[in-house]
Amino acid sequence: MNPYLSCENIEIKVGYKTLISSFSLTVNSSETFAITGSNGCGKTSLLRILAGLSRPHEGVIKIMNEKLWPTKEIKYEHYSIFLSNIPSLLLDHSVLWNLEFYVKSFGLKFTLPEYKQALSLVGLKDREKQIARSLSTGQKRRLSFAALTLMKPNIVLADEPTNGLDEEGCQLCLEILSSLKTFHNSSIIIATHDEKLINWCQNKISLEKYVPKEQKNKINVKALL
Ligand SMILES: Nc1ncnc2c1ncn2[C@@H]1O[C@H](COP(=O)(O)OP(=O)(O)OP(=O)(O)O)[C@@H](O)[C@H]1O
Fold it and tell me: CB of 181 closer than 6 A to ligand 1?
């Protein structure tokens, strides 16, 4: 069977600086990966590239055996979903409007009871008319989980998905990801510093080994004091 996601020899540059080089990965159905590494090593940059939201300097990326980069030949945008570390919402619109809008942007549509059920599942019951601006950070994140439960993507690319969540929210996140993996064979790739999430993932990849040596500038606190 073809892998859900594969990438070969990815190089990421920021300006003239090489952030990551020679990164390759094959992700099959139901596999879970934790991408770890120090602040600024390139986890978010890598996930955004795997989601097709930005471009690598070098490399080849395939999603469901269709090319994402260098030439984009993806048939269905909803194959993979990127959960940003800061959920992007249209803040002057309601919770329900944001959920519908997000799902529609992938060409999908659900019924009102389905949207309501998804909101209820993530603890946002009776908040569908609330303006997104008035949600807390954790509630905004829960709203992005509601979209996941509806869309059931093949691949979830989640950037620090438990940031800003209370203990129950973290548990909810794990339950949603576990059920996508178990019942829909979704592959999950998570960039995180959260030990619980890292331990949940079957595979752990430290990005540090793909950071060129000259970029590893450790801060010497003693020298600063
Ligand atoms: N658009 C951009 N313009 C300039 N520099 C950028 C841009 N995006 C990212 N960078 C730089 O690239 C590096 C990697 O950023 P990235 O957000 O990928 O790191 P990260 O590993 O996710 O960090 P953290 O653990 O803090 O979330 C950082 O030094 C950052 O300043």
Answer: no
Residue range 61-74, pLDDT digits in tens? 999 989 999 888 77
Q: Taking Cα atoms as reference points, which of 207, 181, 180 lies closest to residue 50?
A: 207
Which pTM was predicted? Answer: 0.91
Report the mean per-residue pLDDT for the chain.
Answer: 92
* Apex 115 CA angle, 110 and 118, nearest 5: 120
Residue among 45, 50, 160 whose CB has most ligand 1 atoms within 8 A, to mutate: 45
Quick check: CB of 43 below 6 Å from ligand 1?
yes
User: How far apart (Å, rounded) are the C-alpha atoms in residues 15 and 1?
Assistant: 38
- Tell me the one-letter amino acid at 178: S
Which ipTM did the prediction report? 0.94
**pLDDT tens for each residue of 171-219:** 999 999 999 999 999 999 999 999 999 999 999 999 999 999 776 656 6
What structural domains and CATH numbers belong to the chain? 5-217 (3.40.50.300)
- The ligand 1 atom nearest the CA atom of 42: 18
Is 17 a pocket residue for ligand 1 (Cβ < 6 Å)?
A: no
The answer to whether residues 180 and 152 touch, using CB atoms and an 8 Å cutoff, is yes
Q: Ligand 1 centroid to 1 CA: how many Å?
A: 34
